[in-house]
Design a protein that fits this description.
The chain folds into two domains: 2-159 and 345-361, Rossmann fold; 165-342, Rossmann fold. The chain is 49% helix and 17% strand. The protein has 17 helices and 13 strands. The strands form two sheets. Strands 3-2-1-4-5-6-7 form a seven-stranded parallel sheet, with helices on both faces.
């Protein structure tokens, strides 16, 4: 069978690559094409477009990139028509993938959506687009199933891919007895790295511990060394970085959940340009920005957002985090509760089985 897969960010590439690997085990005559990253390509996907061309964050940044987005959308639609896939698998990235879903539905191509769009957070009316255009919806957050069902949408909670990845890593990599480093995870997009990393570096400069920076795919050493030529970079091995770290400073996103699953105390940091932030605040309905706090439905870890994300405030929160034993114990207990809520299902296997078996239902 021919599978067209679209992922638009680094985390999506990680999740897509595992689904590709699992489908390959079940369907020995499988072929994969579409948009993705390095890991999906290594797993067997032929890339029409590399996802780094579409790494855009923030409302204003999206507006300034509309021509590029439209061009790549047209390119993918034409490629789908030429290649004629048996199924389309969309991974997260809703702004772009909703348009692809609508197109594929009109062409009679079965649409699978892995990592359901976060319509519970903002623009809830998009749930109607899901009803109309998506045949199989796979959720990765435990509270999503109830939300979608309350709107008349069938959703399958398949487990969480970050937990799957972290558990695989921990099973084969013993955690060091002593954690003697500081982990900085400034994101995977150019603009967020350029904004977050200098603030993080300023806040930890007086800490008497080695500083390790997670190097995002697509960015060379020179890019990071503009902030400090002596930075110790860790490419493509965030879990190894976290396993050595006493605490972590993390930009919002999947990395906050992965850091928690690795058992590392963290402070979540987020900033964007003021216009994007103002627009976001007016439309986003959730109480928290980190997945950890959202899943636990309480403020377990500190979130420093926009103006609060500054060197002075961050330094103060770091001192509280590393000096207060009660805070550390509470975070550890919350992390255990988080694991229970996520469950034990293996999402890549579950999604792959659903996709392959869906052809038997036609």
């Amino acid at each position: 069978m021919n599978y067209y897969i679209i992922s638009g960010e680094t985390s999506g590439d990680n999740h897509a690559s595992r689904v590709i690997s699992e489908i390959s085990k079940l369907d020995k005559n499988s072929h994969f094409r579409g948009m993705g990253g390095d890991k999906s390509q290594m797993a067997g996907q032929t890339l029409l477009i590399h996802q780094k061309e579409m790494a855009i964050m923030g409302f204003v940044e999206i507006l300034t990139s509309l021509f590029k987005i439209a061009r790549n959308l047209k390119k993918i639609k034409n490629d789908i028509m030429d290649w004629k896939p048996d199924a389309i698998i969309l991974v997260d990235y809703p702004g772009f993938n909703f348009k692809i879903a609508k197109f594929c539905k009109s062409e009679g191509i079965p649409v699978h959506y892995y990592i359901s769009p976060k319509v519970w957070a903002w623009r809830e009316k998009r749930v109607n687009l899901i009803k109309q255009n998506i045949d199989y919806l796979y959720s990765i957050l435990p509270f999503e199933k109830a939300f979608f069902e309350s709107h008349g949408v069938e959703s399958n909670y398949v487990g969480n891919p970050s937990k799957e990845t972290v558990d695989n890593y921990l099973a084969s990599n013993p955690t060091p007895q002593e954690k003697k480093s500081i982990a900085l995870l400034p994101g995977s997009r150019k603009q967020e790295i350029k904004t977050a990393l200098p603030i993080m570096l300023e806040a930890v400069k007086d800490q008497n511990l080695p500083i390790l920076v997670a190097q995002a795919p697509g960015f060379d050493d020179e890019f990071y060394h503009q902030f400090n030529p002596r930075l110790k970079l860790v490419p493509n091995d965030m879990y190894a970085l976290l396993s050595k770290s006493k605490f972590a400073l993390v930009t919002s996103g999947t990395a906050t959940l992965e850091t928690a699953l690795m058992g590392v105390p963290q402070i979540v940091c987020y900033t964007t340009n003021r216009i994007s932030y103002w627009i976001g605040r007016s439309v986003i309905k959730v109480k928290y920005i980190s997945l950890v706090n959202l899943i636990l439905d309480k403020k377990s870890i500190i979130e420093l957002i926009q103006d609060e994300f500054n060197p002075k405030k961050l330094k103060s929160e770091i001192e509280k985090l590393i000096e207060d034993k009660n805070t550390q114990d509470e975070i550890s207990q919350d992390y255990q509760e988080l694991r229970k809520k996520l469950g034990t299902s293996i999402p890549s296997t579950t999604v792959a089985k659903s996709v392959v078996s869906s052809f038997d239902k036609v």
